[in-house]
Design brief:
Layout: H1 7-10, E1 22-28, E2 33-40, E3 61-65, E4 74-81, E5 86-93, E6 99-103
Parallel strand pairs: 1-6
Antiparallel strand pairs: 1-3, 2-4, 4-5
Length: about 100
C-alpha cells in the first residue's frame, strides 16, 4: 500500500494563477555568486538565500522557481559575489521573464 506524502511536503508553494515564475539566473560577472535572494517587492525584508549551501560559478546558470505562493509577479533580486559586490534590482516581473543576466 502506498502512502501519499502531504501536499505541503511534496511540492513547493505555488500560486494558483498559472503564471510561470521560473527564471534562469545567469552569472556572467566573472565572479562566483555566493548568495541570491528574491523577495516580494511589497515586503521590506529579504527572504532566505535561494542558493542555500550552493554557489553559482562564473559562466553558470541555475533555474529558480521564484513563486512564494503569494500571487506576486514583482520581486526584488539581490545577489552577493566573491569580490564583495552586492547587486540589487527592484521590481523584476518574474511572470514575464524567463532569464535574468548578471553581467559586469
Amino acid at each position: 500500500e502506498r502512502v501519499a506524502a502531504p501536499a505541503a511536503a511534496a511540492a513547493p508553494m505555488q500560486s494558483r494563477d498559472n503564471y510561470n515564475r521560473r527564471v534562469r539566473i545567469h552569472n556572467q560577472t566573472g565572479w562566483t555568486m555566493l548568495r541570491f535572494y528574491a523577495s516580494d517587492s511589497r515586503v521590506d525584508s529579504w527572504e532566505e538565500d535561494m542558493l542555500g549551501r550552493d554557489v553559482l560559478s562564473a559562466g553558470a546558470s541555475i533555474m529558480m522557481n521564484i513563486d512564494d505562493g503569494s500571487g506576486a509577479c514583482l520581486y526584488d533580486f539581490k545577489a552577493e559575489f566573491t569580490n564583495g559586490e552586492v547587486l540589487t534590482r527592484m521590481n523584476v516581473n518574474v511572470c514575464q521573464i524567463a532569464d535574468y543576466y548578471y553581467t559586469r
